[in-house]
């Protein structure tokens, strides 16, 4: 069990920083180990993470199917530690397939569940919801969701989630012609970081700031 836990959290860290190759290596080590020792929940989590990586690589339909199968097993096993994250990724997969109604339904249902059981992942879920609203041309709703995400991230001192929402908000404001407003807000968030500048989100923020400048 300890080996599975270490590898699964390692995969999460690698995926977050954008190192999908290392994330996949961790996942591929978990699956046979979990199968060998009949650790069904950990096997399901590994396949869910594999689904997330697949979506990040553009293999949308494969990723969605892996996530749906993983969530079915996790709910059956009453092991829901990763369920919120996986539902968020599943909703993103639906949106990338053009199924925006299903994406919004999934994310709204997940947010409602989180409000009953705790707010830990709400900043990221609100950010994802903002992305979907932006795709439906609801720019006001999208901006409100991004601002809500930043507010929740600040409440949790979750700087990385704040950065992601700030990137989304800056892109929206830039498209609306609010360049200086976008640059100042994103620069303020970016300036809070003292490490991790080779990770995916900070590289994205750096490129966007260069464009805004």
Could you describe the 3D structure shown?
The protein has 213 residues and is an all-alpha fold. It has eleven helices and no strands. The chain has helices spanning 2-17, 20-36, 40-56, 60-76, 83-96, 100-117, 122-135, 139-156, 159-175, 179-190, 200-212. It is globular.
What is the terminal separation in angstroms?
Answer: 49 Å
Strand content: under 5%
Helix content estimate? over 70%
| Secondary-structure class | mainly alpha
Number of strands: 0
Count of helices? 11
Q: The biggest beta sheet, please?
A: none
- Quick check: average pLDDT? 94
The dominant shape is globular
Radius of gyration: 18 Å
Uncertain residue segments? none
- Helix-strand topology string: HHHHHHHHHHH
């Amino acid at each position: 069990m300890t080996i599975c836990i270490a590898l699964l959290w390692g995969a999460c860290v690698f995926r977050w920083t954008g190192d999908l190759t290392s994330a996949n290596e961790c996942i591929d080590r978990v699956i046979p180990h979990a199968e060998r020792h009949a650790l069904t929940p950990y096997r399901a989590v590994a396949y869910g993470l594999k689904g997330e990586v697949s979506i990040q690589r553009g293999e949308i339909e494969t990723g969605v199917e892996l996530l749906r199968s993983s969530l079915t097993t996790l709910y059956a096993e009453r092991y829901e530690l990763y369920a919120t994250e996986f539902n968020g990724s599943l909703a993103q997969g639906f949106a990338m397939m053009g199924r925006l109604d299903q994406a919004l339904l999934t994310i709204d249902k997940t947010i409602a569940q989180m409000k009953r059981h705790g707010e830990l992942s709400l900043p990221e879920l609100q950010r994802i919801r903002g992305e979907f609203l932006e795709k439906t041309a609801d720019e006001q709703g999208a901006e409100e969701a991004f601002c809500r995400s930043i507010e929740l991230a600040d409440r949790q001192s979750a700087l990385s989630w704040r950065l992601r929402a700030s990137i989304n908000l800056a892109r929206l404001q830039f498209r609306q012609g609010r360049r200086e407003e976008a640059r100042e807000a994103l620069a303020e968030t970016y300036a809070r970081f003292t490490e991790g500048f080779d990770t995916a989100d900070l590289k994205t923020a750096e490129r966007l700031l260069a464009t805004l400048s």
